[in-house]
Write a structure and sequence with these properties.
By secondary structure, the chain is mainly alpha-helical. The chain has one domain (37-232): MetI-like (MetI-like fold, Orthogonal Bundle), CATH 1.10.3720. The protein is 72% helix and 0% strand.
Length: 241
């Protein structure tokens, strides 16, 4: 597939700089230091924004659909099938389909990313909402809790572990898939990687540095969500993965 976005090559000239850069050694810390502010940091921030938007919208949609499926079980299967069908479509193919309608914009990237989060978040939220034991629900009803109170005071708190578990997978997956955004827009950590590979002799430092940042972002995000689960579900710490 050809690159959809256009833009200047951001790799430094090999004829300039330190011997590490001009020789295209495995990793040049000097280049990372010199180009952190104009290349790596902006790409990292853009990658975070792409991920937050996708997971935020995806979670809101998945949560609303899960609440609907929790009350109307007959809609769960159709929603699950629709989400699964979207997930089977390659991201690059979706980009190609969307470009004529939404152009080379962030919207073109976010639509597939949001769709991919649904197949992860929707079943996890539904499973979490249905994880409350029947005897607990009966006891809550016996105490006079309404249907709405039962949801917010019993079912939702017990669903937190499953919801956070789904978020962990969705966030890490979105960070990985968002690197392909460089085929459409000049944003994210995939952008410096793409241009570094595109050179006649791929520039190793930029490839490795952007790749390491993507991995570090995924690990840090997962660690933050693990911490969030520990905070929200202190009684489940012993069984926390």
């Amino acid at each position: 597939m050809t690159h959809l976005a256009a833009g200047p090559v951001i790799i430094p000239n090999y004829g300039q700089g330190s011997s590490c850069v001009t020789g295209n050694h495995t990793f040049c810390w000097g280049w990372v230091h010199d180009h952190w502010g104009d290349t790596l940091q902006p790409a990292l921030v853009q990658h975070i924004v792409l991920t937050v938007i996708a997971v935020g919208i995806g979670f809101a949609l998945a949560f609303a659909l899960a609440l609907l499926a929790h009350r109307l079980r007959r809609v769960e299967h159709p929603i699950g099938i629709a989400a699964a069908l979207l997930y089977t479509m390659p991201s690059l193919a979706l980009f190609q389909v969307l470009v004529p309608f939404t152009g080379l914009t962030r919207t073109t990237v976010e639509i597939p990313l949001v769709a991919y989060t649904l197949v992860i978040l929707f079943p996890n939220i539904v499973a979490g909402l249905r994880s409350a034991p029947d005897e607990v629900l009966e006891a809550a009803r016996g105490m006079g809790l309404t249907r709405r109170q039962l949801l917010w005071r019993v079912e939702l708190p017990l669903a937190v572990p499953a919801i956070v578990g789904g978020l962990r997978i969705a966030v890490v997956s979105t960070i990985a898939i968002a690197t392909i955004a460089s085929f459409v827009i000049e944003q994210g950590l995939g952008y410096p990687i793409f241009y570094a590979v595109k050179l006649p002799t791929p520039f190793k430092t930029e490839i490795y540095s952007a790749g390491i940042l993507a991995i570090a972002l995924a690990l840090a995000s997962d660690a933050l969500l693990v911490g969030l689960r520990r905070l929200l579900v202190p009684w489940a710490r012993k069984g926390l993965a």
